[in-house]
Each structure stands twice: as C-alpha cells, then as structure tokens.
Amino acid sequence: MNIRHLEYFVVLAQELHFRRSAERLGITQAPLSLAIQALEADLGARLFHRTRRSVALTEAGFALLDDARAILARVEHAKESVWDTVSGEVGRLRVGFTNASTLSPFFPRLIHAYRTQRPKVNIALLELSSSLQIEAIEQREIDVGLLRLPESALPTDVVFTPLLEEPLLLAMHAGHRLAEVASIKLADLRDEPFIAYPRQAGVAVYEQTVALCAKRGFEPQVVQEAQQASTLIGLTATGLGIALVPSTLQTIAVPGVVFRHLDETDTITTLYIAHRYRDANARAMQFVELALGLR
C-alpha cells in the first residue's frame, strides 16, 4: 500500500470532488484518478461511487478513512521523531567525567545549561578516570568526555579540545613544615611522602605528578593511595603525606588541611572535552559547542 495513495484518498474523501482535490494536492486529475484506482486494486474494493455529477464514499471507503488518517498521522510522527533525533532534540547523550571535575563550578553550569536547552534529551553521566573515558569514547560507550590528558599516546580518532586551565596545588596538614614557606618548589618535595591516586586507575593528575617530579630528577614516594578526591584531601589531614591536586579540590573543606601554590610555571592542569572525530551525533556536537561557549 502506497502512502502517497493514502494521502490522495484522504483528500478526495474530504473534498468529494476530483478537480478540487487535484488542485489541493498540486497535481492534475489524471494521476489522482490513477492513484485511487491503484489503491482500490491493492485493497480489492471500490472506495468511491463515481458519477459524472458526484463522488461519494462507499462502505469500504468509510471503513478505510479512519485507519488511513491514523496511518498518515503515525507516518508524520515518525518523520518528526527521526528529525528530532537527527537534529539533537531527543535521544540519549552519555557524558563521561572525572571525580574532580564535578567540583568545578563549570561542570554543574554546563550540565544545567544543556538540560535546559535540550529537555527531551536523556543525559547519562558516567564517572570514569581520564584513561577509561578515552577507551569508552573509542568503543562508543560514551559520546563525550570531560577529562585531563594522560601522559600516554593519544588516539587519532578522538578530538581533544581544552576547556579550562587551573594550577596544581599542594595539599598538606596545616602543621606541615612547608605550610608557612613563602615559595615552594617541586624539588622541595623530593623527600616528602605522597598521597596519590592508584597508579593503575588511569587518573591523569597522578601521571602528571610523576612526570613533573621526574623532570626534577626524583620519583614521588607514594605511601598511601586513594580512589576519591575527597579521600585524598581527607588523608592529608592526618599528616600522613602531601598531595598535588587541581585547585578545584580546595572546595573540599577539611579541618587541618591547607592548600599552597607552587612557585613553578609548568604545574598547570587542563580540563579537556573529548569526542569522536567527525562524529555524526548531533547531541554530542551540540554539547561540545555549548561547553566551548561557556568556558
């Protein structure tokens, strides 16, 4: 059954006049008549009583009319649904993020703005380390990632765009010997015990810390590992060790913990937004554009 034939049938059923129906459809009477004949042949029933003076629906025509209207409405709904999906108005968006990125004011502002602009899009937020986000983007398990670049080689099929820069700060117990020092260098931390993320967790800040220390000729002495940013800061309050953390972690207010800037030029960490190269996902591209506009 041809959808166009159903459209012609519904118009003719409303007008009950071939010339007016053809004019309304923007065609001549001949193709309209042929379409109705073809539809009747498909259904095996006459749909109209035709005379030289009048056109009227048959019993079969009346039976078809409601169904034809319903079919055409469903077809139109399907077109709108596909268009909404392609244009990014509906569907699902999977966004990866690191534990520390949620502490930046930028993160809730971005998510809230996107949900306001695209209320019909189902946004799923997945907490993953930077390395795991990159793998998830490549495997199409997430659409966009908010992450920091690991020290390892980056895939060529993922696009990384910088969003925000922030300094790495030294978190320590308030009674630490460096807490009152005016100028702190990374080299001053050579013999200090560190609290850090697990090496195998794929956290970019850990990798950056190791690389920065290596440039100064030493390896950080990690005495305690922590999976979460809040745990990392909390453990520094025990005096067990120090930690290098993004400045956004200052929002974790733990009594007895102080944060100090380093007198260095390369202790900067950058938050990136990542997505697949030439991704056809309109929702992902709209999210990226919004993030770049808000930075």
From TrEMBL:
The record's annotation in Pfam families points to: HTH_1 (PF00126), LysR_substrate (PF03466)
List the GO cellular component terms.
protein-DNA complex
The UniProt keywords, alphabetically, are: DNA-binding, Transcription, Transcription regulation
| Entry keyword annotation includes DNA-binding | yes
Q: Where is the HTH lysR-type domain?
A: 1-58
- GO MF term set: DNA binding; DNA-binding transcription factor activity
- This protein's source sits in the domain of life called Bacteria
Q: Which PROSITE patterns match?
A: HTH_LYSR
- Tell whether Mitochondrion is among the UniProt keywords: no
Q: What InterPro entries does the record point to?
A: LysR_HTH_N (IPR000847), LysR_subst-bd (IPR005119), WH-like_DNA-bd_sf (IPR036388), WH_DNA-bd_sf (IPR036390)
Q: Which family does it belong to?
A: Belongs to the LysR transcriptional regulatory family.
Task: Report the PANTHER family cross-referenced here.
Answer: HTH-TYPE TRANSCRIPTIONAL REGULATOR CYNR, TRANSCRIPTIONAL DUAL REGULATOR HCAR-RELATED
What protein name is recorded for this chain?
Transcriptional regulator, LysR family
